[in-house]
UniProtKB/TrEMBL annotation:
InterPro entries: TLDc_dom. It comes from Orbilia brochopaga. The keyword Protein biosynthesis does not apply. This is Restriction of telomere capping protein 5. May be involved in a process influencing telomere capping.
Amino acid sequence: MGQSQSDENQQLTQEEITHLITVRLQKRTFKDIELYSFRDVFFSLAEHSDGVAFWSEDTLTRFLELPDALDVGALIFHASSAAASFPFISIGPTILEWEGMVRALCVFTGRYKGVLKKGVGDPVRLWFKVLSVYDRGEEEEMDTDPAGKGDAASSIITADTATTTETAESTSGTDDLFAVADPEDMEEDDDDDLALAALDALDAIEVFKHAEKSSVKYIQRLDPQDMIKFVMLLLVVAPLDPQESLATYVERYSADALPDLRRTAESIVRSMSTASQPILWSAFNRSVRRSLPYMFDGLKPLYEHFLFSRRLSVGGETRPQVKLPPRPLLQHLGAIMTNNVLNQLSFFLNGKNLWRRLRKLYIGSEDGFSMGSFEQKVFKWRAPTILLVSGSRMPATPETSREKSFTESLAPKRFPDSVDADGGLIFGAYVDVPWKISHKECFGSSATKIFQLHPIHEVFKTSHSHTDYAYWNRSAGVGFGAPLPRVKAGEPVLHMNLGAVSLVLDESLEFGIFTHSSDGGGAYHTSDLPVNGRRDNWQDRFAIEEIEVWGLGGEAEAKEQARQWAWDEAEALRRRSVNLGNDLEANRALLEMAGIIGGDRSGGSM
């Protein structure tokens, strides 16, 4: 009897569990100086209502220095307020008081993993939950005061989330999401997994008081226009350091730079949404996991700004901030490789390997569109490289003799074009091994990737079906995912072999073709995106406008490449400069044996 009463008294509510998790987060994931600075930042800028210290949307926007041009203040505040409900995200948004801000920061920086057992808690699902709004059945109304904070707290939240609420109301009546959603898009309240993981870390699973489950199924969704704004911010903050001001990259979101920034963000969001339809979990999940694994990394240093109080220093004195001009992310810009494209690449290649570490090796418009120029500039680079190619889609019926010749080298049956590309096409490849001439077999490794950057963002990783990762041949051109054509040196390619998923550039570097066959079975995986017909058969044939190859590395790699070329040239010169000596008859016999003179060939005067 006494034991039963004790167990009943130990049952915890969601609010009590959330408090325990917050205490654990503060103890286990912050250093003392970080927590001290965090408190100073929070309480020095907090507003107050009915004795509650909290942060409003305006305070958060100003502190993070979110630019007005990006119009993301309301989105970031909504996501932060939702994250403040951790581990019960679906009950948010909640007030950004002190404990709520601790939880929000831990979600945005990934520190929440420090209180969960390893491997528990899906970060992709968590990002979707904090960014999304809910569409639900009509059986019951959603709790308008989920955190139990009372009218004062509720009014604080509502005032600052009006924009998000209006967006949800304006689209909920027009989108029949339940008719188009996959089963995995329709979720019941799925916070339990995260909550139980947190309780497991607290050794308190048995004291969790489960609330009665609702039979209502929810569809979480993201508004694509809001997501475009959010991705624009992610592109700007991608290379940010924890103590670096966002204003450092002000030129990236200036009036002149915004159109290109938005264009890049739109390409990324197209991988999640068809024709501006709401973004559902299935598309978001597949896009982020395969093609955008590092997209949210820039939020970590952005939110770590909370851990550096400008009023505090080790000696108790405020140190003057010395602002040094930042080193450019790219030493040289290309026609394709811009800062936006660089940060887009960092979403799947890890920016730490890219920023300030890319070296221009070959630019077609500068070095010449020829295989010889390509070889001279790219070969001997002993580190990974990135190839980018841009172009415009070819007409359905060839208009020039060169277009006709290229078309005739392809199979007569072709797949339809992919998504509209009014702004052109951009494809590329990441090659992690040195380039070499392919005589009989392809090169590359399982780390090689091919990708599309515009008008839609998608990465195609290697499969285990074939090893036709990449080839380079003067007579056959450049290919990824396609078998090496069997041609004799100097002869044109009469029939171009295309892999199931492949990128091929012809030997003149004039035309290119990207093929996607839903049958698969090639060196690269087929698309799994459930939007824009990406799982179907499609093919883009294009006239090349620019080709660029960039090397990962620095001065050491450049010096090694120069040394390798110098050695090759010296060796070739040595072979040409054989000392024949003064014995004319012996020299004539040697030249005859070599086939240089003799027969009808006089060999000139000796």
